[in-house]
Design goal:
mainly alpha; about 90 residues; two-stranded parallel sheet; about 45% helix; 2 strands
């Protein structure tokens, strides 16, 4: 529940923001890039995030590197390994 007078855009839950992103996309597919946080370095990662926003991303999935990505595919695993997590 939001505080009285609070901006609904900043007070919405994650699920509500995701629902709104799909509702706002109309009949087109939503643009949802996946970015590995910190890959290949922090500055480039931030530039990629800014570029995704500028390109009109509806949602952005930001991956958190970890050492045992059991459910991730080979590309995401390689990105995490490149950060020295193996």
């Amino acid at each position: 529940m939001s505080a009285p007078g609070a901006d609904p855009a900043t007070q919405a839950s994650g699920a509500e923001r995701i629902r709104a992103a799909f509702a706002d996309s109309g009949k087109r597919a939503a643009l949802m890039p996946y970015l590995m946080g910190g890959h290949p370095d922090v500055d480039t990662s931030r530039a990629c995030l800014d570029a995704a926003i500028a390109a009109g991303a509806d949602l952005i999935e930001l991956g958190i590197p970890f050492s045992d990505p059991l459910a991730d595919g080979p590309i995401i695993h390689a990105a995490g390994a490149a950060l020295g997590l193996e």
